[in-house]
Amino acid sequence: MSNELDLLKRKYEREKNARRQAEKILEDKSLELHYANENLRQINSELEERVIQRTEELKKTESRFRLMVETASDIIYRTDNTGYFTYANPTALTKIGYSLEEVKQIRFSTLIDPEYTQEIQAFYLEQSIRKEVTSYKEFPVINKKGDTIWLGQNVNFIYDENGELEQVNAVARDITEIKLSETRLKNLIATLQSGVLLEDENRKMVLVNQTFCNLFAIPAPPDSLIGIDCSCSAEESKVAFIDEEGFVNRINEILEAKEKVLNDELLLKDGRIFERDYIPIYVENRYSGHLWNYRDVTIQRNQVNAIKRSEEKYRSIIENMNLGLLEVDKNEKILYANQSFCKMSGFELDEILNSTASKLFVRGENAEVLIEKNNMRTKGVSDAYEIATKNKRGEAKWWLVSGAPLFDQLGKPTGSVGIHLDITSQKNIEKELVEAKYQAEESSKVKEVFLANMSHEIRTPMNGIIGMARQLNKTKLDEKQQFHLDVIRSAADNLMVILNDILDLSKIEAGKLSIENVSFNLSDSLKKACDVMQPKAEEKGLTLTTHTDSKIAPTLFGDPFRLNQVLFNLIGNSIKFTQKGSVTISSELIKNQGNAQLIQISVTDTGVGIDKQYLETIFDKFTQEDRSTARKYGGTGLGMNISKQLVDLMGGDIAIESRKGEGTKVIITLPFLLSDQDISEESSFSNDQYNCEELKGKNLLIAEDNELNRLVIETTLAQYELNLHFATNGKEAIDVLQEKPIDLILMDIQMPVMDGIEATQYIRNQLKFDIPIIALTANVLKGDTESYIASGMNDTVPKPFEEREILETLMQWLGKSTLPKADKKEPVSTHKALYTLEKLSTISRGDQTFISKMVAIFIQQTSSAIEEMKEAEATNDYDRIRKLAHKLKPSLDNLQINSLKETVRKLEYIGEEYDIKELPQLNQQFYDVLSEVIKDLQKNYA
Amino acid sequence: MKGIIFTEFLEMVEEKFDYQMVDNIITDAHDPLDGAYTSVNTYDHAQLVNLVIALHKRSGIPLPDLLRTYGEYLFGGLAKNYPNLLKDIKDPFDMLLNIEILIHTEVRKLYPEANPPKFTGTRIDDKTIELVYNSHRSMGDVAEGLIIGCGKHFGVNYKVEQTASDNNGQTVNFRIERV
Predict the structure, then answer these.
(1) Which of A16, A498, A576, A900 qualifies as a FRET site for A874, CA 20 to 30 Å off?
(2) Rounded to an integer, what is the distance from CA A323 to the centroid of its chain?
(3) Chain-centre distance of CA A741, in angstroms?
(4) Which A residues in the span 15-74 are in contact with B, Cβ-Cβ below 8 Å?
C-alpha cells in the first residue's frame, strides 16, 4: 500500500514537474508571440503608409499614362478575353470611326479587312495558345466609313494568376502611308529595268529584284535570297565575265573604299555589256550597307558604237570624196565645207566660214540664182542645177550643184547642204561638141544638096540619052544604024548602071537611103526580077529559073524594090560570069519567128566561079577579081558592096560560096514581117504598048526647064494622043494654066524664076486649082517627097522615068475611078477599112514623117471642105459642091476612103447627071464618113 | 527529440503494463528528469533509448518488437493529438509518400528546431510503395511500427517489410505492399 502510495506520489511529482515545464514553455512562447505581434503591428502600419503613398504615386502615374494614352497619336485599345473592346483611346476612335459606346459593342475582329480576318485570327489564337505575351503584326482594317487602314499592331496578352487570358492590350500605328510607299517601292524595285541588290553592312542580302536575278541568271526567286551572305557572290559570278579576276578585284576594291562608283563598264563573255553603280549607304555617318545597281547596256552600247562607226564612215566619206560638200544655214552663212570644196573653190575653210555663199563664189545674176535656190531650200525643196562660178583666183568654173534642205528635229528647215562637182571641162567639151555637131550638120546639109544636085545634073543628060535612044529604037533603022544604036544603048545602060551605083552608094553613105516597108509577094518579086533579066540570059543561051518555097507567106512586109535591086545585081553578075548552063534563083523559109519569117534567097550559077582569095574582098568597094575583069566584063566593082549595104540595111546577111571553075552561089538571108494585107495584082502593063484610051485628048502641062527632058517626055508621050503644053519654069506654067484648060501638070522641081514647089503652092493657094500636079524629080531623097506633097502636089515620078511608070501615074490621076474598064485593071483596093494609109506609104516609100504630115494636111483640108460643103448646101450652090467634091477626090483616093467613092462621084455631077434630090442624103453620108475618118486619124495618127 | 515521443512511450508502458513498470524503468534508466516529461518540451533522445532498454530488460520482449509496437502506438497518439494533419488524407500510401510535405513541414512550423526523421517514398505500382527511413537516431523499427499503425488507422491492409538496412540502421528501406 505504501508502495502504491509512494508510486502515486512519484507519479504526481512527475506530472507536476512536467506541468511546470510546460507552463514555462508556454510563458516563453507567449512572450515571443507578444513581441512578434508588436513587430507585425509596426510593419503593418508602415506598410499601410507605404500602400497609401504608392497608391497616390500610382494614381499620378496612371493619370499621366492615361493622359499619354488619351493623347497618343497611336491607336491604343483594350479588349477583354473574347475580343470585345473595353477601352479605346481617342485616336483609335477617330481612326476606326466609332464612338466609345459603339466600339464597346463590337469585337475587334469585325474591323479586320475580310481578306485578312482568317489569317489574323489564327495569328492571335496561336499567341494565346503559346501563352506568348507580346506580338507584332501588320494587317489592314476597315473603318466605319469603309476606308482601309493598315495597322502595325503590338499586342500584349494579359494572363491572370491561373494563366488564363484575362485581357488584351494593343498599341497600333497607322501605317497606311508607309504600306503604300512600301508597295510602291516594292513595285518600283521589282519592275526596275536595272538589277538592284541591297546588302547590309555584313554583306547580307537585304533586297534584290527580279531584274538582277535575270541579269545574273539566278534561278531562285528574289524573295528567297533575302538574308543570304553575299561575300562569295563575286567569286561565284565571275565566270560570266571576260576578265574574271578583274571583276572580283574591282568589287573588292570598291568595297574597301566604300565610295560611290558610277557607270563601271563590265564586259561579259556572251557579248553583253553591263554598267554598274556602287552606292554606299550611311545612316548618321555610320556605314550600314550598300546598293549595287546593274544595267544591261549592250543594245545601247552597240547602238552607240554603230552610230559612232556610221558617223566615222560618213565623216570619212564626206572628207575624202571628190565631191565638194558645203553646208549653209538659212541665211546662206557657210557652216562647213569639206576639203574637196575648198580645193574646188580655191578658198581655205577658215576664209569662207561664216561668209555668205552667194557673195563668195558667183557674180551678178548668178548670185541671184543662188539666193533663189536658198529660198527654195528654206521651203524644203531640193534640186540640182549648173552654175557659172569664179574660184578664188578668179578663174571661171562651171559647177554642178545638188542641193537639199536640212531639217531640225521639229521638221523645220535649218539650212541646206550642197554637193558640188566641177564640170568646167565637161562644159567645155559640151561647147565643142555642140560646135562640132553644128559643123557636121552643116557639112551634111552641104553634102545633101550636092548629092541632090549631082543626082539631078547627072540624070538629066542620061535621061535624055536613054530616052532618045529608046525612041530611036522604035523607028525603022538599017543594020548599021541599028548596030550603032545598040552600042549607044548598051553603053548608056552601062553608064546608067554605074551612075546609079555611085549615086546609091553616096546615098547609103550619107545615110539618105531608106528602106521601104510595103506589102509584097516574094514569089512575084522574084519572077519580076527574072522577067527583067530574062532577055540577057537568053542572049547568052542560059536558063534562068526561079523556085519559091511554098512555106513562105503569101504577103510579106519589106522593100521589094531594093530587094530586086540586089537580085538584079546578083543575077546580072551570074549571067555575066556564066558562059553556059543555068542561073537559078530560089527562096527558102529558114525559120518562122512569131510574126516574121526568116527567108533565104540564093542565086546559083554554073559560071566560072570566084577565086578563094578574091572571095575575101568581094564585098569591098571597087574590087574586081583582077584588073582584067573590068575590061572583060565591065562594071564598076561597086555592085557587091552596094548589095551588101542594101542587105544590111534590110536587116539581113549576105554570103557567097564559090569554087573556081565550078560556079557561084550567093545567099542572102532576110527577115520579113508577115503582112495580112491582101495584095491585089498591081495593074500590070506587061506589054510595051500600053492601052491608055482614057488619056486620049487630055491636056497635059509639062513644066520642065531642061530642053532635053522636055523632048524626052514629048517623045515618050507622043503616041498616046495627049495634048501637050510646055512651060520652062514655074511662072510660065502658071500663065499657061490660066489661059488654057489643063487636066494634069507634070511639074519639074528645080526650075529657074519659079521652082516647082513655089508654083504648086501658088496654084493651090492663089489660083485655088485642085488640078493634079505630079512632081518630076531626080531627087528621091528622104524628105523630098514629103515636101512636094506638102506643097500641094499629088504624086511624084522619079526621073528618069520608066514609060510604064509615067503612064500608070497619068492613068491614075486622069482616069475615071469607079467604073472598071474591060481592058484595064484599076488597082482595086479590097481592104474593108474606112481608110488606109497604104497608098501614102507607097508614095513615100514608108516614110512615117511624110505620112503624118499628109494626114495632118488631109485633116485640115477635109475639115474646111466639110464646112464649105455645108455652106454651099445651105445656099444651094451646086456648082460649088461639084467643085469641092472634085477637089477632094484625090485626097480621098490617097487615103483610099472607098466608102465615099460613089458618093463623091455623084456629088461631082450633082444637078447634072444626078438629081439634086439626092443631095441631102449624099451630103450627110459625106459628112458622116469624113468626120469619122478625121476622128480616127486624129486619134491614131495626129 | 520532441517530448511527445517520451510521453506517449510512458503512457504506452502504463497502458500495456502498469504504472509500476513505468516507475521501475524510470529508476532503472537513471532518468535525469525522473520521468517528468511534457510533450511540448524537447529532450535528449538517448534518454528514450535508456528507457526502452530498461523496459526490454524488465519485460524480456525483444527490442525490435518493443520498438515496433511503440511505433504503432505512437501513430495512434500522434493522430489523436494532431487530427488536422490527417484529416484530408484518405489513403495511407498518400500519407506515407508525402510524410515530409504533409507532416514534418507542419511540425517544423510549430517547432522550428524539430528534427524529425526523413522519409522518402517511391511508388512501385498501384499496390506497392517503397519507403526509405533516414535518421541519425537509427529507430527503423519504430518507423516500421508507425507504418503499420498508419495502415491500421486508415483500415488498409498491407504488409511491411524491411528490405535493406544500412549505416548502422540510420538508413532503412521498407517495402509496403497492399494485400
Answers:
(1) A900
(2) 26
(3) 67
(4) 15-19, 21-22, 25-26
Cis ω before A219 (30° cut-off from 0)? no
Looking up cell 531594093 gives: A562
- CA dist A664 to A562, A584, A632, Å? 22, 11, 18
Is residue A19 within 8 Å of B38, Cβ to Cβ? yes
Contact A666, A570 (CB under 8 A): yes
| Cβ pair A383, A408 in contact under 8 A | no
Q: Which of chain B's residues have a Cβ under 8 Å away from the Cβ of A22?
A: 38-41
Phi, psi of A288 (to 5 degrees): -135, 35
Q: What is the pLDDT of residues A187-204, one digit of tens each?
A: 887 778 888 888 988 888
CB contacts of B40 in chain A (<8 Å) are 21-22, 25-26
Q: How far is CA A112 from its chain centroid? A: 73
Q: Which residues contact A683 (CB under 8 A, 6 or more apart)?
A: A808, A811, A824, A825, A826, A827
Type of residue found at A339 = Q
Residue written as cell 531623097? A781
- Positive or negative: CA dihedral A128, A132, A134, A138: negative
Do residues A57 and B72 touch, judged by C-beta distance below 8 A? no
For the beta sheet containing B158-166, the strands, ordered from the edge strand earlier in sequence to the opposite edge, are B118-125, B128-134, B171-178, B158-166
Q: Which three cell numbers stand for residue A343?
A: 580645193
**Out of A21, A25, A26, closest to residue B36 by CB:** A21
Distance CA A50, CA A41 (A): 14
Residue A666 CA, chain-centre distance (Å), reads 50
What phi, psi does A775 have (nearest 5°)?
-85, 130
Q: Which three cell numbers stand for residue A793?
A: 502636089
Give ∠ CA A574-A576-A582 in degrees, rounded to 5.
50
Q: State the pLDDT at residue A624.
A: 66
The grid coordinates listed for A836 are 488606109
Q: What is the pTM of this model?
A: 0.34
Q: Is the dihedral of CA A642, A643, A647, A648 positive or negative?
A: negative
pLDDT at A821: 36
- Closest partner residue to A18 (CB to CB) among B22, B26, B38 is B38
On whether the CB atoms of residues A767 and A738 are closer than 8 A, the answer is yes
Residues of A in contact with B23 (CB under 8 A): 7, 10-11
d(CA A179, CA A188): 14
Residues of B in contact with A2 (CB under 8 A): none
Q: A341 and A420 in contact (C-beta within 8 Å)?
A: yes
DSSP state for residue A914 in the 8-state scheme = B
Residue of B nearest to A4 (CA): B20
| Total residue length of chain B | 179
Amino acid at site A676: D
Contact A17 B40 (CB under 8 A): no
Tell me: cis bond preceding A890? Omega within 30 of 0 counts. Answer: no
- Judged on CB neighbours under 10 Å (0-12, 13-18, 19+), A737 is buried
Query: What are the pLDDT digits (tens) for A607-619?
Result: 888 888 888 888 8
Q: Are A702 and A717 in contact (CB under 8 A)?
A: no
Q: What ipTM was predicted for this assembly?
A: 0.83
